Amino acid sequence: MSNVINLRQARKTKARAEKARQADANRAKYGRTKAQRASDAEEEKKRISILNGAKLDNDPNSPKSDQQLPPVSYVIS
User: What is the pLDDT of residues 14-61, one digit of tens each?
Assistant: First the structure.
């Protein structure tokens, strides 16, 4: 003789298992811990700081940020 099961409970158990499987897939696909996000943000800040420190501001051909470029007019003959 087989065991008697409650179909309502079986459906709920199956639905919970499906949600758990979907949640695991989403965690693997999108999830990152708060520590990982903070670490990446810190690395990005460090990278930007290094790049900004390596900029050459004494280039005579580059316009300063507060100077406007003169208008360019093209003469086509």
Answer: 999 999 999 999 988 888 888 988 998 999 999 999 988 877 766 656
Instruction: Parse the chain into domains and list their residue ranges.
Output: 7-52
Q: What is the DSSP string of the chain?
A: -PPP--HHHHHHHHHHHHHHHHHHHHHHHH---HHHHHHHHHHHHHHHHHHHHT-----TTSPPTTSPPPPP-----
> Please, which residues have CB within 8 angstroms of residue 24's CB and are 6 or more apart in sequence?
none
pTM across the whole model: 0.41
